[in-house]
Amino acid sequence: MKLLVTGGAGYVGSNCSARLVEAGHEVVVVDDLSTGHADAVPEGCRLIQADFADVASTVLGEGFDGVLHFAAKSLVGESMQDPAKYWHGNVVTTLRLLDAMREHGTSRLVFSSTAAVYGEPDDVPIPETAPTRPTNTYGATKLAVDHMITSYAAAHGLAAVSLRYFNVAGAQGRYGERHATETHLIPLVLQVATGQREQIQVFGDDWPTEDGTCIRDYIHVTDLADAHLLAIENATAGKHAIYNLGNGTGFSVLQVIEACREATGHEIPAKVAPRRAGDPAVLVASSERARTELGWKPERADIATIVQDAWAFTQSR
Prior knowledge:
Structural class: alpha/beta
Distance between the termini: 33 Å
Helix content: 25-40%
Radius of gyration: 19 Å
Strand order of the largest sheet: 3-2-1-4-5-6-11
Order of helices and strands: EHEEHEHHEHEEHEEEHEEHEEHH
Largest sheet: 7 strands, parallel
Oligomer: single chain
Number of helices: 10
Shape: globular
């Protein structure tokens, strides 16, 4: 298939683009490089440097079989401080993309969604049937896009899949995580090992978990790329399928820090800080539906492998 990847120069987008090329698909990447990196675009992909909202109709006019849509604003804190940036960047621009797809007969879509649409869950692991109650603007905009996609699939026959996941981590060779503003635990911990920060903060050690620290879901970026490949290849006309992607059990903050210590050989000092308001004790997504319907099976689900791959990428930089 000929596939358009929006945000394909970013962390997840570049990994998925590499997997698509490896599977024999023709890939065109559109990325404005505001947070992505030109050198992260895999060989064999054509890069169009632009805001996809400005060029969606023109580019799709070339003729594509499908779109994998990663381009988005994704900082939770910023979304609360500047909501307009997120409603425009995530919702308005995706609406333009959907209209351009309809205009040019592009029939398949895979949307990079988030398990943040569920907010604070009643049950863990979180199933796709859980109530959607996002607690921040970022999650609300992703949920709004999911609603748009559902209506376009029903009205116009779009074959669509949304993939909802929490924390992507690890690396695949030269395709790793490098953000100007880093908010993710594993790269923050690894920054201690590289001397970029003195210690890592642990927000609370009195949570109702086995070791007293929060438990979160981590998925290896290569497993995530495999899920996107399966999704674009199995999308069904007129249906919007939604799948959660997770490791099923989750890892605590202390487990992540200890895995980083073992991988780096660094002591990585940790300091306990007060709990952050709104932090649930456990957030883990169930991936049973993806396993059953897509045949997806994560092959790199242990935290040691995830951290080792992230560390190897960090050292290569």
